[in-house]
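Priority: medium. Attachment 1 of 2:
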């Protein structure tokens, strides 16, 4: 299996600890990070607060939060693709 490395080019926080992410290959999707945040440690704990979660920004193509926590865009794309929730170029949600 070949893994396609991508960067995030656009990210928007949604309610319920979800991110609407557009990737460098033009694909996009909405990923729910609530399970990931529950299973992580100290760095992820502040993200449980929706207001803090909403402060997501892109740093070098990676969704990142003010405390330094980041989410791997390639892994997010793989999860969306496996779940059948990845939108192709130009698709509307």
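Attachment 2 of 2:
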């Amino acid at each position: 299996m070949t893994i396609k490395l991508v960067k995030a080019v656009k990210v928007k926080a949604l309610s319920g600890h979800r991110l609407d992410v557009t990737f460098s290959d033009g694909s996009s999707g909405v990923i729910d990070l609530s399970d990931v945040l529950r299973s992580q440690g100290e760095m992820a704990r502040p993200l449980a607060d929706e207001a803090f979660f909403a402060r997501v920004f892109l740093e070098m193509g990676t969704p990142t939060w003010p405390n330094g926590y980041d989410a791997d865009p390639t892994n997010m794309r793989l999860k969306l693709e496996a779940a059948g929730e990845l939108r192709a170029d130009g698709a509307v949600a």
